[in-house]
């Protein structure tokens, strides 16, 4: 006689982590398409404050950091975002009741939001640029601190790209030394 199989109930586990890449935010594809269409429309028809800040960002040299206008991050559209730093800029033109909720959801995935008033952008842009630069420096410091804490917490991990870290040489095995074959040994 064969044994009967019974169904079991799994123990409750933590919900899966947010997948922050592509369509992995677990958002309905129709909703995500609507968000992208809305962001595209916002890029086509920006306000005066958005135009002024975008022009200033186009002229500025931020090195390796770049600002995107109206990117879709999860289920939110932010005015400007530097994804390398995890920083967003929101231009407050009129009271939007969803800003606090959007900022909380962005903070949950590691993106901090800086709020700027549209009037300040249009009237005194030169006073805002040092605030933006200070926010960028703060995020760079946060990233460096987090990276150092990660390396201290995980000493077994190696990275051959960083000086002073354990790991194989960049050339790998067999790239140098006696017995190497190739064009250089024929001289």
From TrEMBL:
Protein name (Swiss-Prot/TrEMBL): DUF559 domain-containing protein
Domain annotation DUF559: ranges: 34-134
Region span, Disordered: 1-20, 143-187
Residue ranges with Basic and acidic residues bias: 1-13
Alphabetized InterPro entries for the sequence: DUF559
Pfam families given in the database record: DUF559
């Amino acid at each position: 006689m064969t044994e009967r199989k019974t169904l079991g109930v799994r123990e409750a586990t933590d919900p899966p982590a947010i997948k922050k890449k592509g369509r992995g935010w677990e958002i309905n594809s129709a909703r995500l398409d609507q968000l992208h269409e809305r962001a595209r429309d916002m890029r086509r028809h920006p306000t005066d404050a958005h135009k002024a800040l975008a022009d200033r960002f186009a002229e500025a040299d931020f090195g390796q950091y770049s600002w995107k206008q109206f990117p879709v991050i999860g289920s939110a559209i932010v005015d400007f975002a530097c994804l390398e730093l995890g920083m967003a800029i929101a231009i407050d033109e009129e009271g939007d009741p969803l800003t606090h909720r959007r900022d909380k959801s962005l903070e949950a995935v590691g993106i901090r939001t800086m709020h700027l008033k549209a009037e300040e952008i249009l009237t005194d842009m030169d006073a805002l640029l040092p605030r933006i630069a200070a926010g960028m420096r703060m995020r760079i410091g946060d990233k460096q601190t987090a990276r150092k804490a990660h390396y201290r917490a995980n000493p077994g991990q190696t990275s051959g790209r960083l000086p002073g870290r354990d790991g194989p040489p960049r050339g790998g095995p067999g790239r140098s030394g006696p017995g190497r074959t190739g064009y250089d040994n024929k001289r």
